[in-house]
Amino acid sequence: MAIVKLTNVRKVYPLGKVEVEAVKGVNFEIERGDFISIAGPSGSGKTTILNMIGCIDTPTEGVVEIEGQATNGLSDREITSLRHRTIGFIFQSFNLVPVLDVYENIEFPLLLGKEKMSKKEKEEWLSLLIEEVGLTKWRDHRPNELSGGQRQRVAIARALATKPKIILADEPTGNLDSKTGESIIELMKKINREQETTFIFSTHDPTIVAIADHVIRLHDGTIESEERR
Amino acid sequence: MPVLITIALRNLREHKAKTLIIGIIVALGIAILVVGNSMMATAALGVRKSFIDNYTGHVMVSGRGQGNLSIFGYAFNTGNDRVPTIPRYEEVLRYISSQPEVAASTSQVTGFGIINLEENGNDFSMLFGIEPESYRAMFDSITILQGSYLEPGEEGMLISEKRIKDIKKEFGISLSAGDSIILNGLGQTGFKVREMPIKGVFRFNLKNEQLDVISFIDVQSLRYLNGMTVGTKAEIKLEEDETALLETSDMEGLFEEVVVEKGEGGKARLSEESLLNILGDTSGRERTSRVDAGAWHFILLKLKDGAYAPGLTARLNRWFGEQRIEAQAVDWKAAAGGFGRTADVIRIVFNVVILIVSVVAVIIIMNTLVVSVIERTSEIGTMRALGAQKSFVWRMFLLETLTISLAFGAIGIAAGALTIGILNLIGIPASNVFLQILFGGGVLHPTLSLSSVAYAFATVILIGILAHLYPVLIALRITPVRAIQTE
To answer: Which residues pair with A198 in a beta bridge?
Structure first.
């Protein structure tokens, strides 16, 4: 069963008196463990699709299903729980909580739901994540004391904290230099391989698209091509 | 919850300028509230104590009258509002004295007199007609500077030092103990004049210029000046023809009776018999013109404990009702008239001002928080995207507002307490009559009132809760997608 399924998804934004159709009836499926890139130029609808998969935006028409559950008609509380349970986010601008240090930022999603781990288990898991993203020395530092690459590593660790089935990354390397960007993508790929976490990321960088094993190319709100490698 | 506290505290530290702006407003408002309410509470206690100890006692019993009756008479005396005497005085006094809560009582008559300074003019005076023995035992309100206190049954008056000085200043007349003055009274039965010896000159122990117009006088003289005669309360029954005579409009008819007889040679002759007929029998008039020795306006009661006052007042009023006695019992505040109510009025005005200041504070804090919410749109959106429910965001802002309100509220309370401590040491002098009434004396030494601290604490929490509501509404409207777009 597909972990993500979009059926005839359309998204229209009102822009003053006119309406802008950002996504024009899109259909595709994403399998568990996919490392998928949604590629396309600016304005092609990448972020809009990513937002709808991430349940932080709703389609104007059509159905978005996550693990077989349609997200249409869910209440704010239900959809927030679904997001917390199933999806991890990596943002282009990292979006870390500025007043929390590295450890606290990664721990943060775990504090939003019911505690499933003991204190010891949690500490071990978080330390492992910090080690995995190579920030052991930086665990007590605040985001403003870190480089862009380090911040994105914190964001990756935070996205993994709740052990989600899907991780969404919107232009994860957009604010990073190419070398750092590559290392971030490699890290994501490693986690994808080891933990079978589904990674869905949007990008317009062809070198990063090349690493993906499933590519959906968008143009002007429609799917231009879909390629599985 | 710990993460919320961490975020709240660190955010407050991060945004020092905003925290300080809100904090200073809160601390200043709370300090003013604590100082103001403590001063009000001390002043109210001072006014209460000074009136109970010196003028009114805990409970005042009077005849049932219309309007606000106090020991000073009616609040707005138009000349028609005659202070009622206590009916069945002896019976009332007996019942009151039998009540276990009553420690002491004294009776009083209140009136107004004009000190006639002949060609120099007239000076108005409020007169308290007292029973010297019981009054002095109950109220240690004055210090005799010249002469002596009134003795029981002795005719005379005591004038305040201030009054003597005012008369000297205004009329150039020096009065002292041992002198006599002409006192005019405009009582119920007409204009009365009496020569009164000044037995003593006194000073009120509590400074209050308004009360310096009071002179103490033996009660029998005041009853005379007030026209409180036996006749004023006697019931007169008129026959039918006498009623008809009073109602007649035929003025000529009133003088039809022949008093001037024609004598010999047509000369007019005034007969003794006919003259006496005109005057009629005057023995009744003489009897009814005697001063009523049993007439009292007030019985003032001091209780063993002030806490008994409401219960005793209610019981007395119930008994008056059952016995069909046209009398009433009221507490010290009603007995003190405008003096008792002034502190309450000022307190209400002060609290209205505080309410307005609080509203302004809430608006300023609200605005600052709205700016903070807008600045943190991305942070809030990220939290929501990561799975934070709306309740989490709401609690985060509530905690931040309450933390800042309580922390700076505590600073405000401490600053207020310190100010009160300093004011208590140095004292606040009452520079005018208004402040003397308000302070219940010449100097106010305010003490920190626990109720004002509790009130301030409650206000702080209320300000915090009110101030966070609107910013939180804005924060809750932030969707995760907007937050990401903002970034």
So the answer is: A166
Cβ proximity of B150 and B216 under 8 Å: yes
In eight-state DSSP terms, residue A45 is S
* Structural domain includes residue A112: yes
Cα atoms found within 13 Å of the Cα of residue B64, Cβ hemisphere only? 10
C-alpha–C-alpha distance, residues A193 and A198, integer Å: 9
Cβ of B459: how many Cβ atoms within 10 Å?
A: 23
Q: How many domains does chain A have?
A: 1
Tokens of B57: 């006692």
Find the helix or strand (DSSP H, E) in which B217 lies.
strand B214-218
**Residue ranges of E strands in B317-385:** 327-331
- DSSP code of residue A59: -
- Is the residue at A8 inside a domain? no
Question: Cα separation of B262 and A167, whole Å?
Answer: 138
What is the least distance, in Å, from the CA of A35 to any CA of chain B? 21
CATH code: domain of residue A78: 3.40.50.300
Top residue of B4, B12, B400, B484 to mutate, by most chain A CBs within 10 Å, is B484
pTM over 0.80: no
B222: burial class by Cβ within 10 Å (0-12, 13-18, 19+)?
buried
Distance CA B131, CA B105 (A): 10
Do the beta carbons of residue B116 and residue B182 sit within 8 Å? Answer: yes
Task: List the single best residue of A77, A86, A94, A111 to mutate versus B (max B Cβ within 10 A).
Answer: A111
Write the burial class of residue B375 (CB in 10 Å: 0-12 exposed, 13-18 middle, 19+ buried): exposed
Verify whether the Cβ–Cβ distance B484 to A91 is below 8 Å: yes
B166-176 pLDDT tens trace: 888 888 888 89
Domain that holds residue A118: 32-58+74-228
Helix count (H) and strand count (E) of chain A?
7, 10
Under 8 Å between Cβ of A49 and A38: yes
For residues B14 and B19, give the distance between their C-alpha atoms in angstroms, rounded to a whole number.
9
- Sort strands A4-15 and A61-66 into parallel, antiparallel or unpaired: antiparallel
Q: How many CB pairs under 8 A join A and B?
A: 80
Q: Where are the alpha helices (DSSP H) in B52-179?
A: 89-97, 132-138, 161-171
Q: What is the ipTM of this complex?
A: 0.91
Three-state DSSP class for residue B360: helix
Mean pLDDT of B467-474: 90
Query: For A39, phi and psi rounded to 5 degrees?
Result: -110, 160
Nearest to A31 by CA among A163, A165, A198, A227: A198
Q: Say which residue, A94 or B250, is predicted with more confidence.
A: A94
Dihedral sign of CA atoms B408, B412, B417, B418 in order: positive
- Return the amino acid letter for B390: K
Residue A45 included in any domain? yes
- How many angstroms separate the CA atoms of A72 and B479, rounded? 16
User: Looking at A50-54, B40-44, B188-192, which range is the least confident one?
Assistant: B188-192
